[in-house]
Amino acid sequence: MEKFLQEIEQIIIKRRKRLINGQIGNRKSKRIGSSQDFYGHRIYNPGDDTKKIDWKAYPRTGKFYIREFTAQKQMEINIILDCSGSMDFGNPNKFQLAELLSIGLAYISINQRDKLNIYTINKDVEILRKNLNNKYDFYELLNLIKDIKPKGETNFYSLSSIEKIKEGVTFIITDLFGKNFSDILDYLSSKKQDIIVIHLMAPQEIKPDFSGELKLIDKETGESRKILLTQGIKEKYKKKIRNFIEDNKKICDYRDVKYVFSPSDSQPINIIAKAVEVI
């Protein structure tokens, strides 16, 4: 874990769209404020705060100057972690990767002094933690994430119950095996979210290496079905999976949502770097 956190130490989360008007964070704004990044001087005007006068400049110039600093803006970052039953599948396991990605994005967010909210979703949405912004919060969150047990179905529309969601960046980490995906993207977009979808699938889901007679069990509903997996059925399945991936990408592209597809055998640092990349 420590090695992974060191690897992502220099990665920065930025908005692809406009910045919020918020509290002090780690990124510079054109607005002048009171952070610790020195911007320059201007002549003192009656009514200015005398505490901001640069007294060292007066003996040299005979004039009063005000020291100005660049304001910095704090982003609101939301991480939505799919913890439905279907996520607990694959080698490497999808949910284990999703946990690591959530931890990594949380670490970056807290490290750059942004405000972090993290939610889990299956049939319902649960607030895991809100308004986190220091490293003490991070290590508590680390244990909470590790204790999550995937179960149940995914209903993305349950995210509409998050009413007090502020303008910011939202990461959705999911296998997209659920209902109402496009509807929730519309809802989050209406809340001025810069949305990044990280779509995880196991290699065995993309290109199954099974054959013969199989009993398939739905990990979300528990329903089972026996099939004879022939080469012809494999090819039909692969085509459906390709269409599934392409359809989800189109859903995202149409709404200006960033879509990152990642098999679960991908390197976590590469997934995060691609997810936060601003083009």
Automatic annotation (TrEMBL):
Domain DUF58 residue range list: 42-242
Source superkingdom: Bacteria
UniProt-listed SUPFAM superfamilies: vWA-like
PANTHER family hit by this protein: BLL2464 PROTEIN, DUF58 DOMAIN-CONTAINING PROTEIN
Stated name of the protein: Uncharacterized conserved protein (Some members contain a von Willebrand factor type A (VWA) domain)
Species this protein is from: Maledivibacter halophilus
The organism's taxonomic lineage, starting at the top: Bacteria, Bacillati, Bacillota, Clostridia, Peptostreptococcales
